[in-house]
Design a protein that fits this description.
mainly alpha, three-stranded mixed β-sheet, 14 helices
């Protein structure tokens, strides 16, 4: 539509004057022609198609923005568009072996121009590279750069949009990119679905903010025994038989949700991003509940391990290798949410086994405890669920309701 919106319709019946038809087949044809030029990668082609108003059809038969996987799915099926029937899915094909020299196209059955299909097959064969596995048991190159926060850092604008539209697939994460000028973190896809004006951030900025967060969470080693004792008392007061039964019931419900998600994914009723979201969310809930039900010795060990990891990395972050930073971040943190415009960490979550450390860290100095060096900002409280909030450069939040009743102590935000 002239205003940029999209509506379903027919090519022969435009809804208003000035509307431009963008059908799925014409999108596939445009992708094939751009790829055949040999000038653009599939990320760039996805961006061009999105800017021109073309859309891809997802598993729910809804129009969605192109990403690199959508382009790959189109160009990998060049033999079918050229009238050939190979009897094998494109995902199982080797682009070096399936070439115009080895595949006979059939003009009578072709959906697109045969010469166009041959050219696409040629470009795919020319671009094919055998995977090089330089590191044992991994697919990584020996000279590949390591980005400690890659794939656990999410874009805050994408997260907000995913929440508003109730679509986890819109929640994009950031990956490392070793550009010609400086290492950066950027969206995993160049679709750029969110409204952030910045597409990337320099690696030292994001990692610097993360180092500040780690330093703020660190505690002195002589405080660890007192924290463990306080958490033990807290658990003894709240972990009644009734509460245990409730937690076991919730664990069973989470396991059932995982099974339901697996069935829906196998039936192609949900996409992979939604499936992964449900799995990670419910597995995290199970681990959190199991950690709360742990014996005192296990709780003490989890608190000590978490505190020691934070203290160690908080002091040696500038001198640590990227391998050590990555191992630390991915062992202790489930996710980090970063605002690409304000360059602030707006939210973080520890692994479920370490979440109790943050709970007692918050309660250590009374009803409300602000992280050292940060100004307090208001934050909502959610009953019965631990939700640590971090406000980057301007403020950080770790808050628990105060002390009178066990019910109020369960309300942690």
């Amino acid at each position: 539509m002239p205003d940029g919106s999209e509506v379903d319709g027919l090519e022969t019946e435009p809804p208003i004057e000035g509307a431009i038809w963008r059908g799925y087949f014409s999108a596939a044809d445009r992708a094939m022609r751009l790829f055949a030029l040999g000038q653009y990668g599939i990320r760039r082609i996805a961006e061009i198609l999105n800017n021109e108003g073309y859309r891809f059809r997802d598993v729910k038969n809804k129009p969605t923005l192109f990403d690199r996987e959508g382009i790959r799915a189109i160009v990998a099926n060049w033999p079918e568009y050229g009238g050939a029937v190979l009897g094998k899915k494109a995902t199982a094909r080797n682009a070096r072996k399936i070439t115009p020299d080895t595949v006979i196209l059939n003009p009578d059955r072709a959906l697109m121009d045969v010469e166009l299909c041959r050219r696409v097959g040629q470009v795919r064969a020319e671009r094919f590279r055998e995977p090089v596995q330089s590191k044992p048991d991994t697919g990584a190159r020996a000279d590949a750069s390591i980005f400690p926060l890659s794939r656990i850092t999410h874009c805050s604008h994408c997260s907000k949009m995913a929440e508003e539209k109730n679509d986890p697939a819109l929640r994009g994460y950031l990956i490392g990119y070793e550009g010609s000028r400086s290492p950066r973190y950027r969206h995993a896809e160049r679709v750029h679905k969110c409204d952030s004006r910045n597409r990337s951030v320099k690696a030292d900025i994001l990692e610097g903010e993360f180092a500040r967060l780690v330093a703020a969470l660190s505690v002195r080693s002589d405080m660890i025994p007192a924290m463990v004792e306080q958490l033990s008392q807290f658990n003894q007061q709240n972990l009644t038989d009734e509460r245990k039964a409730e937690m076991l019931s919730e664990i069973g419900l989470c396991k059932q949700r995982i099974q339901n998600a697996e069935k829906l994914f196998l039936m192609a009723r949900i996409d992979e991003a939604t499936f992964r979201h449900h799995i990670n969310d419910n597995e995290g809930q199970i681990l959190r509940l199991q950690a709360e039900m742990s014996e005192e010795g296990q709780v003490r060990q989890m608190i000590e391990v978490t505190a020691n990891m934070l203290a160690d990395m908080g002091t040696r972050w500038p001198s640590a290798s990227n391998e050590d930073k990555q191992a630390f971040a991915q062992t202790l943190f489930s996710e980090i949410v970063f605002d690409l415009e304000t360059h602030q960490i707006t939210y973080f979550m520890l692994k479920p086994w370490a979440a109790q450390f943050l709970q007692i860290r918050a309660a250590q100095n009374g009803a409300v405890m602000w992280l050292k060096g940060y100004k307090p900002t208001r934050v909502p409280c959610y009953a019965g669920r631990f939700e640590p909030l971090y406000r980057g450069r301007f403020g950080a939040h770790l808050c628990v309701h105060s002390a009178e009743s066990s019910q109020s102590r369960q309300n942690i935000a």
